[in-house]
Amino acid sequence: MLDAARAVRPDLYAVAELFTGSEDLDNVFVNRLGIGSLIREAMSAGDSHEEGRLVYRYGGEPVGAFVQPSLRPQVPSIAHAMFLDVTHDNECPIQIRSPYDSLPSAAIVSMACCAIGSTRGYDELVPHQISVVKEERHYTKWNPEAEAEAAGEVSLESGIIAGKVALCRLHQELAAKGFIQVYVDQVDEDIVAVTRHCPSTHQSVVAVSRTAFHNPKTHHYRDEVPPMFIPGKIEEVVLEARTVERHAGVYTKDEKCINGMPEYTVEITEHIQLKDSRIVKQAEVTSKGPNEFVQEIVFERLTPGSVIAFRVSLDPKAQELVGVLRNHLIQFSPHYKSGSLPDSDAPAILKKPLKSIMSRLTLADMNVLLFRCDAEEQEDGGGCYTVPSWVALKYGGLQGFLSVMADIRAKNDLGHPFCDNLRQGDWMIDYVSNRLLSRGGPLGQVGEWFQAMFGYLKHIPRYLIPCYFDAILVGAYTTALDATFDNMSNFVQTGSTFVKLLALGSVQMCGVGRKPALPPLSPDLEDVPYRLNDSTGKKEQCCVSLAAGLPHFSSGIFRCWGRDTFIALRGLMLLTGQHLDARNIILAFAGTLRHGLIPNLLGEGTHARFNCRDAVWWWLQCIQDYCRLVPDGTDILQCPVSRIYPTDCTKPQEPGVEDQPLYEVIQEAMQRHAEGIQFRERNAGPQIDRNMQDEGFNVVVNVDPETGFVSGGNKFNCGTWMDKMGESEKAGNKGIPATPRDGAAVEIVGLSKSAVRWLVDLYEEGLFPYAEVTVQRDDVEVSWSYDEWNDLIQQNFEKMFYVSHDPKDPNEKHPDLVHKRGIYKDSYGASSPWCDYQLRPNFTIAMVVAPELFTTKRAWEALEIAEKKLLGPLGMKTLDPDDMVYCGVYDNALDNDNYNTAKGFNYHQGPEWLWPVGYFLRAKLHFAKMIGQEAYDETVYLVKNVLSRHYVHLERSSWKGLPELTNENGQYCPFSCESQAWSIATVLEVLHDL
């Protein structure tokens, strides 16, 4: 960048040297809107995309800078110390430039927003360097009456002292009155204009200096000076001064005193009207736009060595509008009281505090106000705002704007395309208000508030729009957050910033689209939200649904997944207090039960796929959690469920045709598993899965009568969350599941144990009418109690799942496949026995939901091994790195002949998924308590250390979420969802456990 500047204009580069006293300028410029021709011409050489930059050693902030929060992120900067026109060890400027340059250079320094300094010799025009080592003379005495020719005395007539006094007085005034913003403009090769601006009153002082690097006596300076355009109204000329030559002898070095050049002095006039200026020829007010006016200044005697400073205010109408706007911003911060004006004609919507308007918003409304990614916006007929020549924002709601501005604000990056867009037109401003106005209702009122505030914003000078747009949105955003947390549980309201950020993930993921994502609930169910359909005019349910992840799983048929929903529901909805929405989701999925299973891909219920074995157990776990965590939670068991498929083969039924209480649906799920489930997916073939082999469409689930374990699947399908299906014909893995996990998957065994234990307790409390299921054994129907089922799993779990240290363990069917001892198997009875023995994080799930299955000492050892082998910076490795097929980098676009990685075949074979880390940490906390206080204290330290990395990621993420997965060692994975529901939920659950 600087090389380009030097190459294009070496003369202008020399001006920049002034700011550091050195040609080493590589670190002088920072990404801010500011310095004029030097940077603009350098950019035209193709070195930068920013509009301009400001010399940051010059101090202060750029004009139009953002209001910074009291707590703000650290950004790289150089501490401002003292800015000098010359120091004792620098070469005397008169020797390398000319005496005429001393005054304008001093003026440039005096306009700096930091401490300034000089030497007395500079002010007295001593034409040589004063050696601090060898010089033995003293400076001359001060005598205000001294004549110009007087030897050994100085006064205001000497050198540039009179000008320096006025400039220092101005410097002190600007500091005292809060002129903390700076803009430096290189008008041409000789003229530098520096603006100091007060962000509360929006008054400016503009100092224009015409440098004289070369002596005007020997160098020709062009007579024509370009006009200047100063925005606003010039109130006065603060000072105008120029260096002049007089008849007072010539310089002769005094042997007794340090003396300056007597032949030069300063002509100075202070505090005059523009019409009385001897430097300005004329000034005319011109329009720069419909709401911005500038004064065109034509110079007559801005000779080399001259300085003029103007005091400038906004156009009176703009000043009034800014004052009124600041008055409305006081509700967010007292910072805006300064410079504010009352608004007697305020629109009615602005007479109410925004807090009051937002108090009417539901959390579903907050989803619209704050979030909604591009796919969600497009589904509703819109889209996220796109900044031309840059990118589309992450969200249509306020978070999309705040995420960008958070980065821009900290750096005051006013040259960013986002700020350009705001200065160039009202498109972004109108997007914010119109998007909400179109919604009507309480959201429409928030849109009216924005529209009214923007009514003032649109009529102030364009260079101020970015900072006030930011102020409006920050105020509205923080108010929205307060209103959001007011609608959440005490756990959130009294929680840490981290808890609140995670809880905000529930608002991000839970919303209502233009088209309902959930199947309808029973008409007899109370407290179901309804709305009028815009197209049909008919009343329809508008229940909140939970997106699996953003942006890939946020809209349409891919928004709702049974497994994802119920892994995330406890953390995102129950712990945050969104009990009614959680109830509705539980009951909506209950209505889709078919073959005893809850669908994987929901497809609004009527286009569901029942190809997973675990979703139904996560659903049952959530009902259990609902009953425990929600006041009178067991009432949900009596709620009516409208069955879409009363039998496996019926066509979809309308809501209300076939209603059952929820407890009947639960019993049916348990009964069907006990009987055994076997069916072929409907519409089997490429129309529902283009990669699946034919046998993969056959779904089988049963309960092993010897162990009580829920088992199922085959090597051609994947029925758990590790569900990557091979897609590469080139590598030969098409139609082959990477992780079939058939047999009894460890987390399903844990979840089923949790469910049957809970049903035993419910029955004993009289809250569930069934104590048993019936099964066929030897062609005889027999009863099998939940108590017996519970005991059977308990008796067999460690026998079959624990990998003992004893090589002769009689329970070990495949001792030759054991490669790690002291762990728990990932499955039992897989068609490929090797898979049973793979170290994966799934056993930690069973530890949390059914800790009674585990012996404390064994559990602790297994957790220690998992920590050492699987724990990554943010997530858990999905496979032991010692495994021969481990690969920690997921690349779904790669298609080569590598069977193990082509087309992302290793999705669950090493990449580090975030949601299992929540279960690992919760399991560690549980068993640490049982080990002892020391182990527990160490585990709490571990948990906080691990979660601190999630906190940092969440803070820095423009999505304000936690990703689906990372590549090995926490590296970014471009194929991951940027924000995943279950990732956020399970981390929040850890904090709840703490």
Automatic annotation (TrEMBL):
One biological process term in Gene Ontology: glycogen biosynthetic process
What are the residue boundaries of the Glycogen debranching enzyme central domain, all occurrences included?
159-436
> Which cellular components does GO assign to this protein?
cytoplasm
Catalytic activity reported: Hydrolysis of (1->6)-alpha-D-glucosidic branch linkages in glycogen phosphorylase limit dextrin; Transfers a segment of a (1->4)-alpha-D-glucan to a new position in an acceptor, which may be glucose or a (1->4)-alpha-D-glucan
Q: What GO terms are given for molecular function?
A: 4-alpha-glucanotransferase activity; amylo-alpha-1,6-glucosidase activity
- Keywords in UniProt for this one? Cytoplasm, Glycogen biosynthesis, Glycosidase, Glycosyltransferase, Hydrolase, Multifunctional enzyme, Transferase
Cross-referenced InterPro entries = 6-hairpin_glycosidase_sf (IPR008928), 6hp_glycosidase-like_sf (IPR012341), AGL/Gdb1 (IPR010401), AGL_central (IPR032788), GDE_C (IPR032790), Glycogen_debranch_met (IPR006421)
* Pfam families, sorted: GDE_C, hGDE_central
Q: Which positions fall inside the Glycogen debranching enzyme C-terminal domain? A: 538-989
Q: What is this protein called?
A: Glycogen debranching enzyme
Source organism of this protein record = Anguilla anguilla
